[in-house]
Amino acid sequence: MNAAASRGFFTVGVSPESYQLPHPRLELPMILLIRRVLCRALELLREQKFRLAEAKEDPVTAALCAVIENDLRQTGSIPGFNKRTYDFVGRQGQFANYDGTHLAKAPDLCFRLRHDEAKPRMVVSEYDALFVECKPVDSTHPAGSKYCDDGLIRFVQGDYAWAMQEGMMLAYARDGRTIANNLIPAMDEPDRRTSLATVQLPQACRASDATADAHAEPVHISKHRRGFPWQHKKGKATDITIYHLWHDCG
User: Fold this and answer.
1) Does the global pTM surpass 0.90?
2) What does the DSSP 8-state code read for residue 6?
3) Is 211 helix (H, G, I), strand (E, B) or coil?
4) How many other C-beta atoms are found inside a 10 Å radius of the C-beta of residue 17?
5) Structural domain includes residue 5
6) Residue span of the structural domain in which 223 resides
């Protein structure tokens, strides 16, 4: 990595010697809060007659982000999610990958939790967030080639969330696609088990508020090894936990 890219990994007061990797875990209540935010945003899009069953990926994600940022975060209508607790929710912001060789990786959504300024976190703050990758899953966007090979793998190879221990995949599921019938069989194929370095295939989360609702499947969790090295002799990247949210979009 060149010097300019290396400097981009740090904020004032955090030196390469002092920052922590991986960043502290995002606790399950925070993950489930973001799930409630996403579910409510999709519900509002349905109420607005947005064509979730037909729209392409980018228009759906843009509309979803607009509702989250311009409505839900501003109004605080979902307890725990507001301007005081979360920073601006951005779409396709540009981030460097784990070694700075690619400077324009663009995860679909980024949720940054605000922290107590009296308790500084020795982390690379630019990369301290829940990164969400969104993919349609339907007859023309298979769970294997699109959701896994073009989406999920980016967390495994260090393009997204390289400093974190968690990431999130959001599926705009259509044509009756489900985690059990489509995602798990795709991930269980031998070549894909290898490419995704799967430690645990998706399993339903047991938390009481991670269950199914009218349009969302239960939250599922998979785990993956990461083989890349962290910079500044921080060692080999630890495993990553991925939360899978599948929403019935028609």
Assistant:
1) yes
2) H
3) coil
4) 7
5) no
6) 19-248
Residue ranges of alpha helices (H) inside 48-152 are 57-67, 73-75
Sign of the C-alpha dihedral computed for residues 57, 59, 60 and 66 taken in this order = positive
Residues 202, 245 contacting (CB under 8 angstroms)? no
Is there a domain that residue 12 lies in?
Answer: no
Q: What angle do CA 221, 247, 110 make, to 5 degrees?
A: 70
Round to whole Å and give the CA distance between 71 and 190. 43
Residue 13 lies in a domain: no
- Asked whether residue 2 is domain-assigned, the answer is no
Distances (CA, A) of 180 to 26, 128, 173, 177, 220: 26, 31, 12, 9, 10
The tens place of each residue's pLDDT in the chain, 250 residues long, gives 444 444 445 545 566 667 889 999 999 999 999 999 999 999 999 999 999 999 999 999 999 999 999 999 999 999 999 999 999 998 988 899 999 899 999 899 999 988 766 566 788 888 999 999 999 999 999 999 999 999 999 999 999 999 999 999 999 999 999 999 999 999 999 999 999 999 999 999 999 889 999 999 999 999 999 999 998 889 999 999 999 999 999 8
Residue pair 192/186 in contact (Cβ under 8 Å)? The answer is yes
**Number of structural domains, the chain?**
1
What residues contact 173, with CB distance under 8 A and at least 6 apart?
A: 137, 138, 217, 246, 247, 248, 249
Strands, E, within the chain: which ranges?
Answer: 90-91, 109-111, 130-137, 166-173, 198-204, 220-224, 240-248
Q: How far apart are CA 55 and CA 57, in angstroms?
A: 7
